[in-house]
Design goal:
This protein is of the alpha/beta class. The protein contains three helices and eight strands, in the order αβαββββαβββ.
């Protein structure tokens, strides 16, 4: 039995049906037009120390884009051409690391952290896992093929923000 089978089964029981690769959001054009059409979305993370957060993101391969204030209390990191996250020291949202050491591995462990959860889509989850481990970043869920047809891993920021790093795949026939 694949060690990920019990996790996939538990998650599938909890969250229901699986998705197909075509149902996984890839761009701003993934939903039908409605009354409001967002032109972009930039999450803002409440962080306890902006300088150490810039350093943490740089270990992950992101770049510091800018900072504001003397000393800086607001700034941004980016990856690729479109992904950007604003960082705010001590304000604009919640943060807080739970006592849990894993995510998606024990019932309720995904409820412990008080930070933001975000999905980050990459080309190679396993390569990203290797890079994160080599950089000493906290991986709380190893690369696993999930029942919704996404291979994903979880990476936790010291302030309790969890990044679901994933890539969709075609279901096995």
């Amino acid at each position: 039995m694949d060690p990920g089978d019990s996790t996939r089964n538990r998650v599938n029981e909890r969250y229901g049906d699986v998705a197909t690769v075509g149902q996984i959001p890839r761009s701003a054009g993934c939903y039908p037009a409605s009354i409001m059409e967002a032109k972009g979305l930039t999450p803002i993370l409440n962080v306890s120390d902006i300088a150490s957060t810039f350093a943490w993101f740089e270990k992950w391969g992101w770049k510091k884009l800018w900072d504001w204030g003397t000393p800086p209390t607001f700034g941004a990191v980016g990856s690729g051409k479109e992904a950007c996250i604003f960082l705010c020291q001590g304000a604009q949202g919640g943060r807080g690391r739970g006592a849990n050491t894993t995510t998606f591995q024990q019932d309720g462990d995904e409820e412990g952290d008080k930070g933001v959860w975000m999905s980050v889509w990459v080309d190679d989850v396993d390569e990203m896992h290797k890079q994160c481990v080599a950089a000493g970043l906290e991986v709380t869920f190893p690369p696993t093929d999930m029942p919704w047809n996404v291979r994903e891993m979880h990476l936790r920021h010291p302030d309790g923000h969890v990044f679901r790093v994933g890539r969709g795949f075609e279901p096995k026939k």
